[in-house]
Write a structure and sequence with these properties.
The protein is an alpha/beta fold. The chain contains five helices and five strands; from the N terminus they run βαβαβαβαβα. The protein has a five-stranded parallel β-sheet, with helices on both faces. Strand 2, helix 2 and strand 3 form a beta-alpha-beta unit. The chain binds adenosine-5'-diphosphate. The site of adenosine-5'-diphosphate has 17 residues, from helix 1 and strand 4.
Length: 151
C-alpha cells in the first residue's frame, strides 16, 4: 500500500492545500495529513480546530486521514510506515526551501519527497495571507474550504 504524508501547519487549511491533497489521493492509496506540533510557533487556530477543519473538508474521502505529530517528519514517517512525503510547490521560493528540506530528509532516512505543482487558480494562496484577511475582517471564504469557520 502506497502511503504519503502531507506535513504542514495548516493554520488554517487553504484551497491550495485542499487541491494538493485531492490530487495526492489519485496517486496514493492513503494521504495522511500530518499537522506538526511546534511549541515555539504561535498559531491562529488551535490544534483541535486545525484538525477538525481538515477532517470536515475530507469527511467523504476515506483515503484521507488527519494526524498530529511532534519531532522530525522522517522519524514520524518511519514510526507509521510511510515511504513518501507529499509537498506542494507554488513558486521559486517554495522550490528553494523545499529542495533543502527534501535533501536533508533524504540524508536522514530513505523517504522520497514527491512534489506537486500548485493549481494555477490557487497558486497565490497561503495560510499567512488567509490569516491576514481574517485579522482584518475580510472575506476569507473564497480562499479556504467551507469547513474553515471563524467564530
Ligand atoms: P509549512 O508550515 O510546512 O509551510 P503549510 O501548512 O504552510 O506548512 O504548507 C504545507 C504544504 O502545503 C507545503 O508543501 C506548502 O508548499 C504547500 N502549500 C501551501 N499553500 C499551497 C498552495 N496554495 N498551493 C499548493 N501548495 C501549497
Amino acid at each position: 500500500m502506497k502511503k504519503a504524508l502531507f506535513p504542514g501547519s495548516f493554520d488554517p487549511i487553504t484551497l491550495g492545500h485542499y487541491d494538493i491533497i485531492q490530487r495526492g489521493v489519485h496517486l496514493f492509496d492513503e494521504v495522511i495529513v500530518a499537522i506538526g506540533i511546534n511549541a515555539e510557533k504561535k498559531y491562529m487556530f488551535s490544534l483541535e480546530q486545525r484538525k477538525q477543519f481538515i477532517e470536515e473538508a475530507f469527511k467523504d474521502e476515506p483515503k484521507v486521514r488527519v494526524v498530529t505529530y511532534k519531532g522530525l517528519t522522517v522519524d514520524f514517517c518511519k514510526e507509521i510506515g510511510v515511504d513518501f512525503i507529499l509537498r506542494g510547490l507554488r513558486n521559486p521560493a517554495d522550490f528553494e526551501f523545499e529542495k533543502a528540506i527534501a535533501h536533508t530528509n533524504r540524508d536522514l532516512a530513505p523517504v522520497e519527497t514527491v512534489f506537486l505543482l500548485t493549481a494555477a487558480s490557487t497558486s497565490y494562496i497561503s495560510s499567512s495571507i488567509v490569516r491576514d484577511v481574517i485579522r482584518n475582517h475580510g472575506d476569507y471564504t473564497k480562499l479556504v474550504p467551507k469547513s474553515v469557520k471563524v467564530r
